[in-house]
Amino acid sequence: MKVLHFYKTHKPDTIGGVEQFIDHVAKNVAPKGVQTRVLAMSANAASEPIQMDNYEVHQTQSQLDFASTPMSYGAIDKFKKHALWADVIHLHYPYPFADLAYLASGTTKPTIVTYHSDIVRQKLLSAVYEPLKKRFLKKVDRLVATSPNYVDTSKTLAQFPNKTSVIPLGLEDTLIEGEAFTLPEKWRPQLGERYFLFVGVLRYYKGLKDLVMAAKSSHYPIAIAGDGPERAGLEALAKTIGADNVHFLGQVSAEEKSALLKNCTGFVFPSNQRSEAFGVSLIEAAMFGKPMITCEIGTGTSYVNLANVTGLICPHSEPNALRWAMDQLWSDQGLALELGRNARARFQAHFTAEQMASAYLGVYKELFSTA
């Protein structure tokens, strides 16, 4: 069976959440006899296919990037060509240009769409896009959300109940029992033996201003690992209010991230808008057996982190509530350990890459057999 993914970016150019998802699915269905191609836009497109682990990436030159949507005339022709090769097409929402390319191609190949998130911020553009979106989602064969919580709260998915199902995101288990995952010495003076951790891109919807405000006058270290457009403002806020226990670590390597996760007291993920549809970083924290603190926003964050089972959930955009949750885990180490054990067990039961890929393979086979 041959599967074509089309998305706006992919490795080796970028390694975001959707790219990581495509990579894990492609690698894990390959041993089951599935050939995968990924068609992606690139500002510097390679002329030849790029060989990844068990799949190929074909790049097409982007000519325009509008509202985080790279586009080009050539991409539509390339999509048509690769669609002829494929048995099943796998698209990713939201990416309006892929909708356009799919409809313009006239392909009748079975098509699955992973619905990663509603369009949250760009209200005006969303209204203009609405007719194309409806036509696109009506034509595709299957919609897959990443959590039942998102299905329950998405007005768009509510229009297509008969072809919507749920497959949670998953990650490859990199927690190696017995490995030290020693915290680098450069961070020991700041973080000590116990600290709270956030890992991710510093974006507007991550709720990190709330975290910095919650840190004011607290005594425990809080590490923020990652970079992004909000970093300068967050550092200025921390300085202004005297939250000198918040430490901005910048970009970290995979090894450094593992060490930070292994040694933290708890993982804080204060996202406060529906743009945070799932939270892959939460799966990483669960994999390392860490208790989580999240905010209720009606998305998959409350599916990964079950209230009072794998962590604590508080109202969004309320720094005092975040502070209370951190206080609970800091002062009650027994509770933190119990929640962390439950998080690890939930990861193994629901969020491995193998389970995710197996579920998608089932959908691929079903669509292919009924084509």
Brief summary of the model shown:
With 371 residues, this protein is α/β, with parallel strands linked by helices. The protein folds into 2 domains: 2-171 and 352-369, Glycogen Phosphorylase B (Rossmann fold, 3-Layer(aba) Sandwich), CATH 3.40.50; 185-350, 3-Layer(aba) Sandwich (Rossmann fold). It has helices spanning 17-29, 73-85, 96-105, 123-139, 148-153, 188-191, 208-215, 231-241, 254-263, 280-287, 301-304, 319-331, 333-350, 353-369; strands at 2-7, 35-42, 50-51, 56-61, 64-66, 69-71, 88-93, 111-115, 142-145, 164-166, 196-199, 222-225, 246-250, 266-269, 292-296, 311-315.
Question: What features would you describe in this structure?
Answer:
The longest helix has 18 residues, at 333-350. Helix 7 crosses helix 12 (319-331) and helix 10 (280-287) packs across helix 13. The two termini are 13 Å apart. Strand 15 (292-296), helix 11 (301-304) and strand 16 (311-315) form a beta-alpha-beta unit. With 371 residues, the chain is of the alpha/beta class. The chain has 14 helices and 16 strands. The chain has an eight-stranded mixed β-sheet with strand order 3-4-2-1-7-8-9-10, sandwiched between helices. A six-stranded parallel β-sheet has the order 13-12-11-14-15-16, sandwiched between helices. A two-stranded antiparallel ribbon has the order 5-6. The protein has helices spanning 17-29, 73-85, 96-105, 123-139, 148-153, 188-191, 208-215, 231-241, 254-263, 280-287, 301-304, 319-331, 333-350, 353-369; strands at residues 2-7, 35-42, 50-51, 56-61, 64-66, 69-71, 88-93, 111-115, 142-145, 164-166, 196-199, 222-225, 246-250, 266-269, 292-296, 311-315. Helices cover 41% and strands 20% of the residues. It folds into two domains: 2-171 and 352-369, Glycogen Phosphorylase B (Rossmann fold, 3-Layer(aba) Sandwich); 185-350, Glycogen Phosphorylase B (Rossmann fold, 3-Layer(aba) Sandwich), CATH 3.40.50.2000.
